[in-house]
Amino acid sequence: MARHGKQSIGLATSRDLFNWDRYAGNPVYTKPDWAMAYPNGWVDCRDAHIEWRNSEFLLYTMVTTKGGKGAIALASSPDAHSWADLGPVLITFRTPESPRVFEHHGTYYMFASSSFGKKLFKSKDLKSKNWEEVPFQWPSPGLWSGWETQQDDSRTLFSTFKWEMNGNFIRYWEVEWHGETRW
Questions:
Q1: In the structure, what pLDDT confidence band is assigned to residue 175 with cuts at 50, 70 and 90?
Q2: What letters, b where the CB count within 10 A reaches 16 and e where it falls short, cover 19-31?
Q3: Which of 37, 65, 143, 183 is the 20 to 30 Å CA partner of 31?
């Protein structure tokens, strides 16, 4: 008999990024009440992305709604231990993997991609329920996931990995901005 998992978010801390201590109260976040637990026992609640803004942590995770739609859940916490559900910030295609949020000149952007779709969204408010889709020149076809950004005053760099049958790889590139959107 196959064993199915219940995904959840745990916490570990480190002073040197080499030695880690797991928080005794793990998991610190599990699926919100509005998200689905599949009949076989599987629960989506993964790919955490955390932002620290205005004296609170904001946690974005991938979940599936009770209606079977893919969603990005949002929760907030003052201490990264106890989380309050703020509902879905985005309901979109199935399994929107690895939500990643970054800021550029006062606008926030969020990547969501899976084998069922890939989109980039923007908002002026991290807690918004109205993220607007942004045109984006995606890399070649395929499942691109795990987006990361690195920025300074003059450059924005993206990295992402692509899932492939014969092995995965990571791509890096520099972003050219054209106003609020790019490309």
A1: confident
A2: eeeeeeeeebbbb
A3: 143
Using an 8 Å Cβ cutoff, are 47 and 61 in contact?
Answer: yes
Cα 183 to Cα 174: distance, rounded to the nearest angstrom: 11
Model-level pTM greater than 0.85?
yes
| pLDDT value of position 157 | 85
In whole angstroms, how far apart are CA 39 and each of 6, 66, 84, 159? 12, 11, 26, 36
Token digits of residue 21: 């201590």
Residue linked to tokens 């926030």? 108
Task: List the domains of the chain with CATH numbers.
Answer: 40-182 (2.115.10.20)
Tokens 């069922």, located at residue: 116
Q: Is 158 helix (H, G, I), strand (E, B) or coil?
A: strand
Beta bridge partners of 37: 43
For residue 109, the tally of other CB atoms under 10 A from its CB is 21
**Residue 178 confidence (pLDDT) above 80:** no
User: Would strands 132-134 and 117-123 be described as parallel, antiparallel, or unpaired?
Assistant: antiparallel
Identify whether the C-beta of residue 119 lies closer than 8 Å to the C-beta of residue 112. Answer: yes
